[in-house]
């Protein structure tokens, strides 16, 4: 059993959003990072896949040590006090694959695999199309047997947690000086040009009896809030990356410099054992047809297999575990 959602994010961009996506991810990661906590970039390099062509492979570690006490009591019972989320992403824009799993750290330099970790994974596939979110069957080829809950997210009207709200990043009030876009009002998706949709197929799997439904729903809410904040920021930061201001080479240089500064800001020392040396759980099924075909140093690991069980639909807990920008 797993919990799967197809999320539609309608955006006021065309497919040139590729530069905006890279800019937003780098800047957002730097802003949300602090000493001992945040996003450490481990790998970021060109990557070629026989099915999807040229792309970029990144590996990141999201350290959440100070967030453990903010978790619900049922979550604190199973999460180690010192841990991070390993994220691997294959970006073949306008198609991307992202996978996350939890690892725990004991002492400073030793990376261990906790007993419950193979039971947990997050798999996100993203496709971008120039439409208003009308393509509910966009992932039918990759996951035709996978039942899912479909939801639409409005970057202007859907709420984010109060402590992350900034009026300067609110699409209802922001007005771009370069493009004239902004101050999105009710019904903007029907009239705004240009328009595009970011479709995200999000699969959360936590195979622990007694906690599965609660954890999967909780994680879906966290993922939803993170993605909504990021898309709002990409819209509000458009004047920083749009048009002639930033080419692909320039955004890659910005990405490199920002990642280097973020790693120094976190102050994390590399562990004695790299993540690639830790054995991944085996699977009797192959990875989804959309997953990269080369191994992790080159290939997507087996734990990325998209489950085919029917999701349970219950309201998610209200607690959010994003890093607190005030600290």
Give an overview of the whole structure.
This protein has helices spanning 17-31, 73-76, 188-191, 212-236, 238-241, 248-266; strands at residues 3-11, 38-49, 53-63, 83-92, 95-106, 110-112, 120-129, 149-154, 196-206. With 327 residues, it is an alpha+beta fold. The protein has a single domain (3-304), classed as START domain (Alpha-D-Glucose-1,6-Bisphosphate, Chain A, domain 4, 2-Layer Sandwich). Strands 1, 2, 3, 4, 5, 6, 7, 8 and 9 form a nine-stranded mixed sheet that branches. β5 and β6 (110-112) form a beta hairpin. The longest helix has 25 residues, at 212-236. It is globular, with a radius of gyration of 19 Å. The model is unreliable at 104-116 and 269-322 (pLDDT under 50).
Which short descriptors sum up this protein?
26% strand, Alpha-D-Glucose-1,6-Bisphosphate, Chain A, domain 4, 327 residues, alpha+beta, nine-stranded mixed beta sheet, 22% helix
Ordered list of secondary-structure elements with their pairings:
Blueprint: E1 3-11, H1 17-31, E2 38-49, E3 53-63, H2 73-76, E4 83-92, E5 95-106, E6 110-112, E7 120-129, E8 149-154, H3 188-191, E9 196-206, H4 212-236, H5 238-241, H6 248-266
Parallel strand pairs: 1-8
Antiparallel strand pairs: 1-9, 2-3, 3-4, 4-5, 5-6, 5-7, 7-9
